[in-house]
Design brief:
- The chain is about 35% helix and about 15% strand.
- With about 325 residues, it is an alpha/beta fold.
- The radius of gyration is 20 Å and the shape is globular.
- Bound molecules: thiamine diphosphate, iron/sulfur cluster and magnesium ion.
- Iron/sulfur cluster (SF4) binds near residues 32, 33, 39 and 152.
């Protein structure tokens, strides 16, 4: 499809549907809630992945709503796997494809290997198999759908739930402000593996999302893309606000859009002046109980994290070597 290069896409801050691929790989008929940002993200990520791919998907909302036997919304070869082993399954697919190619049994293009999971399936339950796959240098792309809680089982907290948010297992009350801990920095964990490509994205910035997934797929070795996915059901926000909420997450500095290529940080969407965090928190019922002192704390924390990120984007980091596995065997 590539009518457009990444650099060109950066000149546009509007979405022009005719520039994007028309073919659907995540088809209608799934049972995601009205206004689900995660379903929108899946639709566009699968378009960016393109024709030749095999997907391993953890349990979670996007699996539950889309694959009730005997129906499926997925047009790719797609394997539903347990939380713990999504990346292990992707590793196995990558190893099998390499062996088939080496034996001359794979005709044509080698399919891309993609693993997907929610924030619970990524930053909690699937973390060790993901870490192993990143460390072994498999040629695959991991996409995390981050809706900031265990949504499909009834909105329980995960380690990706932000400070202060109400969930059914972090309820606010006299002795609790809601989620007592800060959101786990899964992106920094992925970067710490020294892999060639890591990025954040969200479907409110479709070009940005699309080209980051393309880059991830085309990168030899492991790539990780962390997609903030607005969940009106769990966030207690209006269903017609999903795109707006994704934009507010970026405009307030809560979820900056950046990429890390071979260790180098780069903001892909620059925000000259951040909006106050309250603009993002207020439309969400999960933060409704927070008092002025907690809101002030969140504002300060967000500002500090954003400045740290800007620092990394400005710093002249040494180029990491590409983490591609050496050829097996010796000369
Ligand atoms: C090992 C294991 N523990 C718990 C469950 C039950 N379970 C199914 S989906 C889910 C929540 C998944 O949360 P997340 O990965 O964030 O995806 P979301 O539903 O939010 O998209 C849980 C806890 C399970 N299937 N397997
Ligand atoms: S609970 Fe949230 S993430 Fe799951 S389908 Fe509904 S809106 Fe989407
Ligand atoms: Mg989740």
């Amino acid at each position: 499809m590539e009518k457009f290069g990444y650099a060109q896409s950066q000149k546009f801050d509007t979405y022009a549907s005719r520039l994007m691929p028309r073919k659907e790989y995540f088809t209608s008929g799934h049972r995601a809630c009205q206004g689900c940002g995660e379903a929108l993200a899946v639709r566009w990520v699968t378009k960016a992945i393109g024709e030749d791919a095999i997907i391993a998907h953890a349990t979670g909302c996007m699996e539950i709503v889309s694959s009730g036997m005997p129906q499926t919304s997925w047009m790719h070869p797609w394997i539903h796997v347990a939380f713990e082993n999504t990346s292990a399954v992707a590793s196995g697919i990558d190893a099998a494809l390499k062996i088939l190619a080496r034996k001359g049994k794979l005709k044509g293009k080698i399919p891309a290997v993609v693993a997907m999971g929610g924030d619970g399936g990524t930053s909690d339950i699937g973390l060790q198999s993901l870490s192993g796959a990143l460390e072994r240098g498999h040629n695959f792309t991991y996409v995390c759908w981050d809706n900031e809680a265990y949504m499909n089982t009834g909105i329980q907290r995960s380690s990706s739930t932000p400070y202060g948010a109400m969930t059914t297992t972090s309820p606010p009350g006299k002795l609790s402000i809601g989620q007592p801990t800060q959101k786990k920095n899964m992106v920094a964990i992925a970067v710490a593996h020294g892999i060639p490509y890591v990025a954040t994205a969200n479907p409110s910035y479709l070009f940005d999302l699309y080209f980051k997934i393309r880059k991830a797929i085309e990168t030899p070795g492991p790539a990780y893309v962390h997609v903030l996915s607005v969940c009106p059901t769990g966030w207690r926000c209006a269903t017609d606000l999903s795109i707006r909420m994704g934009r507010l997450a970026v405009e307030t500095g809560v979820f900056p859009l950046f990429e890390v290529e071979n260790g180098r940080y780069r903001l892909t969407v620059e925000v000259p002046k951040l909006r106050p965090v309250i603009d993002y928190l207020k439309p969400q019922g999960r933060f409704r109980h927070l008092r002025a002192k907690e809101l002030e704390f969140i504002q300060k924390h967000t500002q500090a994290q954003y400045e740290l990120l800007l620092d990394k984007c400005g710093a002249a980091y040494p180029e990491f070597p590409l983490i591609t596995p050496p050829e097996e065997g010796h000369e």
